[in-house]
Task: inverse folding
């Protein structure tokens, strides 16, 4: 059919190739075609941040990106970050601080936090809040999430619990 397109990209280090309808979003491609359901969809209009993934290292809304636009690129989801153990300390901090309730927002929160914590220095609480301004949480009130990210940033700065930062193969 003419509205089908071939999409070939790397997802969490593995090359995948599928023929999908041209208007398939990257979020649906990940969730439905690849069954990587760690990436959530909420608003599907770029507002809530539940669908954030890394596209060639940059955080993007997978609900606003067509899968075919990601063809030839490297995508990393929360499953990939988890498998590489680069957010193990962050996930532990979320757990310790009770930073999630229903958990719907958590993959997007972790994506934003991963990106923020990849930058040099220890972000202030204001900077953490600013970074999270595109991530909605209907449960926690954000305070515990900010606490967990701040704790992780401080621990990493002090050399504690720092995960390996090897790059995923592009
Ligand atoms: S589902 Fe993409 S921003 Fe809400
Ligand atoms: S923990 Fe429920 S939306 Fe954030």
Result:
């Amino acid at each position: 059919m003419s509205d089908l397109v071939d999409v070939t990209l790397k997802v969490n280090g593995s090359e995948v190739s599928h023929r999908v309808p041209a208007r398939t979003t990257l979020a649906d491609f990940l969730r439905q075609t690849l069954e990587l359901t760690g990436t959530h969809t909420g608003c599907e209009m770029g507002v809530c941040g539940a669908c954030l993934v890394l596209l060639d290292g940059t955080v993007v809304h997978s609900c606003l990106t067509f899968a075919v636009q990601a063809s030839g690129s490297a995508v990393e989801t929360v499953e990939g970050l988890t498998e590489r153990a680069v957010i193990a300390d962050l996930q532990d901090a979320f757990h310790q601080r009770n930073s999630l309730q229903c958990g719907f927002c958590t993959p997007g929160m972790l994506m934003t936090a991963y990106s923020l914590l990849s930058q040099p220095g220890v972000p202030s609480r204001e900077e953490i809040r600013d970074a999270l301004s595109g991530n909605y949480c209907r449960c926690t009130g954000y305070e515990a999430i900010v606490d967990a990210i701040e704790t992780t940033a401080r621990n990493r700065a002090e050399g504690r619990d720092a995960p390996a930062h090897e790059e995923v193969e592009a």
About this structure: The first helix runs from residue 26 to 33. Strands lie at 4-11, 14-21, 52-55, 58-61, 74-76. The chain has six helices and five strands.
